[in-house]
Amino acid sequence: MSLQHTLAVQTGVPPKARGNELGGVALGDTKDLAAAAWPRQHLRTRLLDTAGPLLQECWLAEGPLAQGHSEGIHWRRGDGMLYGVIELHETDTPTTRDDSPLRATSRLAYERLFRLLREQGTPHLWRVWNYMGRINDASHGLERYRQFNLGRYDAFVQAQRDTGGQVPAACALGLQEGPLSIAFLAGTTPLVPLENPRQVSAWRYPSQYGPQAPTFSRAALAHPRGQEALFISGTASIVGHETVHPGDVAAQCRETVRNLECLVQEANRVARSRPFSLAGLSHRAYVRHADDAVTVRHTLEPLLGGAPLVCVQADVCRSDLLVEIECHAIHSTEPA
Protein backbone atom coordinates (compact mmCIF):
# COMPACT_ATOMS: atom_id res chain seq x y z
CA MET A 1 0.00 0.00 0.00
CA SER A 2 1.34 3.40 -0.97
CA LEU A 3 -0.58 5.48 1.63
CA GLN A 4 -1.81 4.22 4.99
CA HIS A 5 -3.41 5.84 8.02
CA THR A 6 -2.95 4.82 11.65
CA LEU A 7 -4.71 5.95 14.82
CA ALA A 8 -3.61 5.26 18.39
CA VAL A 9 -4.87 6.46 21.77
CA GLN A 10 -1.89 7.13 23.99
CA THR A 11 -2.35 6.17 27.62
CA GLY A 12 1.29 5.78 28.60
CA VAL A 13 4.08 4.67 26.29
CA PRO A 14 3.95 6.54 22.95
CA PRO A 15 3.52 4.50 19.76
CA LYS A 16 6.82 3.18 18.43
CA ALA A 17 8.12 5.02 15.37
CA ARG A 18 7.96 2.92 12.21
CA GLY A 19 10.32 4.98 10.07
CA ASN A 20 7.85 5.51 7.22
CA GLU A 21 5.78 8.27 8.82
CA LEU A 22 4.88 10.88 6.22
CA GLY A 23 3.22 13.09 8.82
CA GLY A 24 0.26 13.36 11.12
CA VAL A 25 -1.47 15.01 14.05
CA ALA A 26 -1.58 14.75 17.82
CA LEU A 27 -4.90 15.64 19.43
CA GLY A 28 -5.57 16.32 23.09
CA ASP A 29 -3.13 17.13 25.88
CA THR A 30 -0.03 17.70 23.74
CA LYS A 31 1.87 20.16 25.92
CA ASP A 32 4.42 17.58 27.18
CA LEU A 33 4.62 15.59 23.97
CA ALA A 34 8.19 15.11 22.77
CA ALA A 35 9.07 16.43 19.32
CA ALA A 36 8.67 14.00 16.44
CA ALA A 37 11.12 13.42 13.62
CA TRP A 38 8.20 13.66 11.21
CA PRO A 39 5.92 16.69 10.68
CA ARG A 40 3.20 16.55 13.31
CA GLN A 41 0.40 19.04 13.82
CA HIS A 42 -0.65 19.64 17.42
CA LEU A 43 -4.38 20.07 17.97
CA ARG A 44 -4.42 21.34 21.53
CA THR A 45 -7.96 20.62 22.55
CA ARG A 46 -10.06 18.26 24.62
CA LEU A 47 -10.71 14.70 23.53
CA LEU A 48 -14.31 13.75 24.24
CA ASP A 49 -15.39 10.27 25.29
CA THR A 50 -11.94 8.76 24.62
CA ALA A 51 -9.93 6.40 26.82
CA GLY A 52 -6.70 8.40 26.92
CA PRO A 53 -5.57 12.04 27.12
CA LEU A 54 -3.82 11.99 23.76
CA LEU A 55 -4.53 10.57 20.35
CA GLN A 56 -2.07 10.36 17.49
CA GLU A 57 -2.93 9.88 13.83
CA CYS A 58 -0.29 9.29 11.21
CA TRP A 59 -0.08 8.94 7.44
CA LEU A 60 2.43 6.31 6.33
CA ALA A 61 4.14 6.03 2.94
CA GLU A 62 6.21 3.38 1.25
CA GLY A 63 9.84 3.69 0.22
CA PRO A 64 12.48 6.30 1.05
CA LEU A 65 11.37 9.65 2.39
CA ALA A 66 12.99 13.07 1.95
CA GLN A 67 12.36 15.72 4.57
CA GLY A 68 13.22 19.28 5.44
CA HIS A 69 12.24 22.61 6.91
CA SER A 70 11.31 25.41 4.52
CA GLU A 71 10.17 28.85 5.72
CA GLY A 72 8.74 27.39 8.90
CA ILE A 73 7.19 24.32 7.23
CA HIS A 74 8.28 20.91 8.49
CA TRP A 75 7.68 18.47 5.63
CA ARG A 76 8.28 14.96 4.37
CA ARG A 77 7.98 13.73 0.80
CA GLY A 78 7.89 10.25 -0.68
CA ASP A 79 6.12 8.03 -3.19
CA GLY A 80 4.61 11.00 -5.03
CA MET A 81 3.17 12.64 -1.89
CA LEU A 82 4.12 15.42 0.49
CA TYR A 83 2.82 16.18 3.98
CA GLY A 84 3.67 19.42 5.77
CA VAL A 85 2.84 21.43 8.87
CA ILE A 86 3.23 25.16 9.41
CA GLU A 87 2.36 27.15 12.55
CA LEU A 88 2.53 30.94 12.55
CA HIS A 89 1.72 33.38 15.35
CA GLU A 90 -0.26 36.41 14.28
CA THR A 91 1.88 38.67 16.45
CA ASP A 92 4.94 37.73 14.36
CA THR A 93 3.43 38.65 10.99
CA PRO A 94 3.91 42.14 9.52
CA THR A 95 0.66 43.79 8.48
CA THR A 96 -0.39 46.72 6.36
CA ARG A 97 -3.10 49.25 7.11
CA ASP A 98 -5.60 47.20 5.08
CA ASP A 99 -4.72 43.87 6.72
CA SER A 100 -5.82 42.22 9.92
CA PRO A 101 -3.12 40.09 11.57
CA LEU A 102 -5.02 36.87 10.82
CA ARG A 103 -5.57 37.75 7.17
CA ALA A 104 -1.87 38.57 6.75
CA THR A 105 -0.80 35.40 8.60
CA SER A 106 -3.13 33.19 6.56
CA ARG A 107 -1.88 34.70 3.30
CA LEU A 108 1.75 34.23 4.36
CA ALA A 109 1.23 30.60 5.40
CA TYR A 110 -0.42 29.67 2.12
CA GLU A 111 2.16 31.58 0.07
CA ARG A 112 4.88 29.51 1.73
CA LEU A 113 2.87 26.33 1.25
CA PHE A 114 2.47 26.93 -2.49
CA ARG A 115 6.16 27.74 -2.92
CA LEU A 116 7.08 24.47 -1.23
CA LEU A 117 4.75 22.46 -3.45
CA ARG A 118 6.34 24.00 -6.56
CA GLU A 119 9.86 23.40 -5.30
CA GLN A 120 9.20 19.78 -4.35
CA GLY A 121 7.33 18.83 -7.51
CA THR A 122 4.06 17.99 -5.74
CA PRO A 123 1.85 20.78 -7.11
CA HIS A 124 -1.56 19.27 -6.41
CA LEU A 125 -2.99 20.18 -3.02
CA TRP A 126 -5.29 17.33 -1.90
CA ARG A 127 -6.31 18.02 1.70
CA VAL A 128 -5.78 20.87 4.20
CA TRP A 129 -6.46 21.03 7.95
CA ASN A 130 -6.70 24.62 9.30
CA TYR A 131 -6.97 25.58 12.98
CA MET A 132 -6.96 29.03 14.55
CA GLY A 133 -7.77 30.68 17.83
CA ARG A 134 -11.22 32.18 18.51
CA ILE A 135 -12.60 31.51 15.03
CA ASN A 136 -15.99 33.13 15.71
CA ASP A 137 -14.70 36.25 17.47
CA ALA A 138 -14.74 39.58 15.67
CA SER A 139 -11.84 42.01 15.31
CA HIS A 140 -10.91 44.65 12.79
CA GLY A 141 -14.57 44.87 11.88
CA LEU A 142 -14.86 41.24 10.71
CA GLU A 143 -15.28 37.73 12.12
CA ARG A 144 -11.95 35.94 12.33
CA TYR A 145 -13.01 33.05 10.09
CA ARG A 146 -13.86 35.58 7.40
CA GLN A 147 -10.45 37.20 7.85
CA PHE A 148 -8.86 33.79 7.33
CA ASN A 149 -10.87 33.26 4.15
CA LEU A 150 -9.58 36.56 2.77
CA GLY A 151 -5.97 35.65 3.44
CA ARG A 152 -6.29 32.16 2.01
CA TYR A 153 -7.97 33.52 -1.13
CA ASP A 154 -5.25 36.18 -1.53
CA ALA A 155 -2.60 33.46 -1.61
CA PHE A 156 -4.53 31.31 -4.11
CA VAL A 157 -4.82 34.30 -6.44
CA GLN A 158 -1.17 35.30 -6.06
CA ALA A 159 -0.10 31.72 -6.85
CA GLN A 160 -2.38 31.77 -9.92
CA ARG A 161 -4.37 28.83 -8.61
CA ASP A 162 -8.00 28.02 -9.26
CA THR A 163 -10.24 29.54 -6.58
CA GLY A 164 -13.37 27.58 -7.53
CA GLY A 165 -13.78 24.10 -8.85
CA GLN A 166 -10.30 22.59 -8.69
CA VAL A 167 -9.73 23.34 -4.99
CA PRO A 168 -8.72 20.96 -2.18
CA ALA A 169 -10.81 19.34 0.50
CA ALA A 170 -10.34 21.22 3.76
CA CYS A 171 -11.63 22.09 7.20
CA ALA A 172 -11.24 25.19 9.37
CA LEU A 173 -11.86 24.93 13.11
CA GLY A 174 -11.41 27.16 16.10
CA LEU A 175 -9.51 26.59 19.32
CA GLN A 176 -9.47 28.87 22.33
CA GLU A 177 -5.94 30.14 21.75
CA GLY A 178 -2.82 29.29 19.79
CA PRO A 179 -1.13 29.96 16.48
CA LEU A 180 -2.60 29.53 13.04
CA SER A 181 -1.84 25.85 12.42
CA ILE A 182 -2.07 24.34 8.94
CA ALA A 183 -1.33 20.76 7.90
CA PHE A 184 -1.59 19.65 4.30
CA LEU A 185 -1.26 16.63 2.04
CA ALA A 186 -0.30 17.11 -1.59
CA GLY A 187 0.77 14.94 -4.48
CA THR A 188 1.99 14.64 -8.04
CA THR A 189 -1.43 13.67 -9.40
CA PRO A 190 -4.46 15.98 -9.77
CA LEU A 191 -7.39 15.66 -7.40
CA VAL A 192 -10.98 15.07 -8.45
CA PRO A 193 -13.07 17.64 -6.56
CA LEU A 194 -16.58 16.67 -5.45
CA GLU A 195 -19.53 18.86 -4.59
CA ASN A 196 -22.79 18.14 -2.78
CA PRO A 197 -26.01 18.63 -4.79
CA ARG A 198 -27.78 19.45 -1.51
CA GLN A 199 -25.47 22.39 -0.87
CA VAL A 200 -24.18 25.48 -2.60
CA SER A 201 -20.46 25.03 -3.26
CA ALA A 202 -18.54 26.81 -0.50
CA TRP A 203 -16.59 28.84 -3.06
CA ARG A 204 -19.92 30.16 -4.38
CA TYR A 205 -21.32 31.32 -1.04
CA PRO A 206 -23.16 34.66 -1.18
CA SER A 207 -21.67 37.75 0.43
CA GLN A 208 -23.76 37.40 3.60
CA TYR A 209 -21.09 34.94 4.76
CA GLY A 210 -18.25 37.39 4.31
CA PRO A 211 -16.45 39.47 1.68
CA GLN A 212 -14.73 36.36 0.29
CA ALA A 213 -16.16 32.86 0.00
CA PRO A 214 -14.17 29.94 1.44
CA THR A 215 -11.73 28.22 -0.94
CA PHE A 216 -12.35 24.49 -0.62
CA SER A 217 -14.32 21.65 -2.20
CA ARG A 218 -16.87 19.60 -0.27
CA ALA A 219 -14.78 16.47 -0.86
CA ALA A 220 -12.07 15.20 -3.16
CA LEU A 221 -10.69 12.00 -4.59
CA ALA A 222 -6.91 11.72 -4.79
CA HIS A 223 -4.85 9.00 -6.42
CA PRO A 224 -1.64 7.91 -4.72
CA ARG A 225 0.14 5.16 -6.60
CA GLY A 226 -2.22 2.18 -6.92
CA GLN A 227 -4.84 3.77 -4.66
CA GLU A 228 -7.84 6.03 -4.43
CA ALA A 229 -8.29 8.21 -1.34
CA LEU A 230 -11.56 9.93 -0.49
CA PHE A 231 -11.23 13.05 1.63
CA ILE A 232 -14.50 14.56 2.87
CA SER A 233 -14.11 18.12 4.10
CA GLY A 234 -15.53 19.41 7.34
CA THR A 235 -19.27 18.86 6.86
CA ALA A 236 -22.10 20.32 8.91
CA SER A 237 -25.86 20.89 9.08
CA ILE A 238 -26.11 23.13 6.02
CA VAL A 239 -28.64 22.80 3.22
CA GLY A 240 -28.21 25.13 0.27
CA HIS A 241 -26.06 27.68 2.04
CA GLU A 242 -28.11 28.03 5.23
CA THR A 243 -27.68 26.44 8.64
CA VAL A 244 -30.58 24.16 9.56
CA HIS A 245 -31.68 22.90 13.01
CA PRO A 246 -30.03 25.67 15.06
CA GLY A 247 -29.81 24.75 18.74
CA ASP A 248 -30.55 21.02 18.18
CA VAL A 249 -27.30 19.07 18.17
CA ALA A 250 -28.93 15.67 17.47
CA ALA A 251 -30.83 17.04 14.47
CA GLN A 252 -27.64 18.71 13.22
CA CYS A 253 -25.86 15.34 13.46
CA ARG A 254 -28.57 13.65 11.40
CA GLU A 255 -28.52 16.41 8.76
CA THR A 256 -24.76 16.24 8.58
CA VAL A 257 -24.90 12.49 7.95
CA ARG A 258 -27.35 13.10 5.11
CA ASN A 259 -24.76 15.42 3.57
CA LEU A 260 -22.04 12.80 4.07
CA GLU A 261 -24.21 10.17 2.39
CA CYS A 262 -24.68 12.47 -0.58
CA LEU A 263 -20.92 13.04 -0.88
CA VAL A 264 -20.24 9.31 -0.74
CA GLN A 265 -22.75 8.86 -3.57
CA GLU A 266 -20.99 11.56 -5.58
CA ALA A 267 -17.64 9.87 -4.97
CA ASN A 268 -18.96 6.49 -6.10
CA ARG A 269 -20.33 8.05 -9.27
CA VAL A 270 -16.76 8.79 -10.49
CA ALA A 271 -14.60 6.47 -8.36
CA ARG A 272 -12.06 4.15 -9.94
CA SER A 273 -12.04 1.72 -6.99
CA ARG A 274 -14.69 -0.32 -5.19
CA PRO A 275 -17.60 1.69 -3.75
CA PHE A 276 -17.10 3.83 -0.67
CA SER A 277 -19.54 3.68 2.26
CA LEU A 278 -20.11 5.58 5.50
CA ALA A 279 -19.25 2.44 7.45
CA GLY A 280 -15.94 2.20 5.59
CA LEU A 281 -14.79 5.73 6.42
CA SER A 282 -12.87 7.03 9.42
CA HIS A 283 -14.70 9.97 11.02
CA ARG A 284 -13.66 12.87 13.25
CA ALA A 285 -16.43 14.94 14.86
CA TYR A 286 -15.72 18.44 16.12
CA VAL A 287 -18.16 19.28 18.93
CA ARG A 288 -18.67 22.86 20.04
CA HIS A 289 -19.94 22.11 23.56
CA ALA A 290 -18.33 19.26 25.51
CA ASP A 291 -21.65 18.47 27.22
CA ASP A 292 -23.04 17.48 23.81
CA ALA A 293 -20.46 14.72 23.28
CA VAL A 294 -22.63 11.86 24.53
CA THR A 295 -25.57 12.97 22.38
CA VAL A 296 -23.30 13.34 19.36
CA ARG A 297 -21.82 9.87 19.75
CA HIS A 298 -25.14 8.14 20.48
CA THR A 299 -26.71 9.86 17.46
CA LEU A 300 -23.86 9.24 15.04
CA GLU A 301 -22.74 5.70 15.84
CA PRO A 302 -25.79 3.86 14.45
CA LEU A 303 -25.93 6.17 11.42
CA LEU A 304 -22.25 5.56 10.61
CA GLY A 305 -22.56 1.78 10.80
CA GLY A 306 -19.94 1.26 13.48
CA ALA A 307 -17.20 3.16 11.65
CA PRO A 308 -14.30 4.60 13.68
CA LEU A 309 -15.36 7.90 15.28
CA VAL A 310 -13.22 10.35 17.25
CA CYS A 311 -14.86 13.31 19.01
CA VAL A 312 -12.90 16.42 19.94
CA GLN A 313 -13.95 19.81 21.23
CA ALA A 314 -13.58 22.69 18.78
CA ASP A 315 -15.50 25.69 17.50
CA VAL A 316 -17.11 25.34 14.09
CA CYS A 317 -16.80 28.09 11.48
CA ARG A 318 -20.38 29.34 12.04
CA SER A 319 -21.50 30.18 15.55
CA ASP A 320 -24.85 28.43 15.04
CA LEU A 321 -23.24 25.13 14.05
CA LEU A 322 -22.79 22.72 16.95
CA VAL A 323 -20.99 19.86 15.22
CA GLU A 324 -18.86 19.24 12.14
CA ILE A 325 -17.62 15.92 10.75
CA GLU A 326 -14.72 15.11 8.46
CA CYS A 327 -13.88 11.69 7.04
CA HIS A 328 -11.54 9.76 4.83
CA ALA A 329 -10.93 6.30 3.37
CA ILE A 330 -8.27 4.72 1.17
CA HIS A 331 -9.00 2.00 -1.39
CA SER A 332 -6.70 0.02 -3.62
CA THR A 333 -7.10 0.35 -7.37
CA GLU A 334 -4.92 -2.69 -8.03
CA PRO A 335 -6.58 -5.91 -9.28
CA ALA A 336 -7.58 -8.19 -6.39
TrEMBL record:
Top-rank taxon, per record: Bacteria
Pfam families linked: FkbO_Hyg5-like_N (PF21168)
Domain (Chorismatase FkbO/Hyg5-like N-terminal) ranges: 57-186
SUPFAM superfamilies: YjgF-like
InterPro entries, A to Z: FkbO_Hyg5-like_N, RutC-like_sf
Region described as Disordered: spans on this chain: 1-22
Protein's UniProt name: Enamine deaminase RidA (YjgF/YER057c/UK114 family)
Organism: Hydrogenophaga laconesensis
